[in-house]
Amino acid sequence: MKIRALVVDDEPRARKAVCLLLERDPDVEICGECSGAEAAELIENASPDLMFLDVQMPEVDGFDLLEAVGAEAVPAVVFITAYDEYAVRAFDVHAIDYLLKPFDDARFARALARAKEQLARRSGQPDPHLAALVRERSPYVRRFLVRQRERLLVVNAEDVDWIEAADYYASLHVGAKTHLLRETLANLEQRLDPERFFRVHRSAIVNVDRVREIHPLFRGDCALVLGGGTQVRLSRTRREDFERLFTTSRR
Q: What pLDDT, on the 0 to 100 scale, is given for residue 141?
């Protein structure tokens, strides 16, 4: 079967150039090409085997996309980048292939050949080097991928006011909007920055930056008033740890 390749770059001319090179290879079938903002939905729909991914994109860059989708979503990735000291060093450390702009046909051919070798070795399994690279860049989740009708949206973690448990799902409250995420609150608690997000009781996590007032209730519980007037209960068993967030330095 042919290798299904996806090209992600915010510049249409750059995407076209990569597609033209891919079309020369009889083993490759281009399953799509798009910008970073459109890529998450296309990855889910097209299930590519290989992705040529630009690093520097203004709305959703290459790292942002992998973080939101999950590094395991695409078995092989070839990054395309203008010179970026951090990115190049990280790629070298993790033995991940990349194309440095401007590249010639011969260099592209070598990158494609290596990607084919990776796909053959892993037989559809995710790349541990890629997962390690994403974790190194950001140990805590910074973006969520959520479905809205027939679209997939990227929601910045910092924009979330609070998160509410809904059985095996979680509701992300972002201003007046609510997004359903297929993930438990316990798992989210482990993936979120503990200096920004705090689990106030077993059914809720709040963005500490959104807290405006704290009102005492009965038996040591409190009501946290968030921006916009939303109230979320703070359990008495978690009150001391919560208040400590306001007395210790934050990054």
A: 83
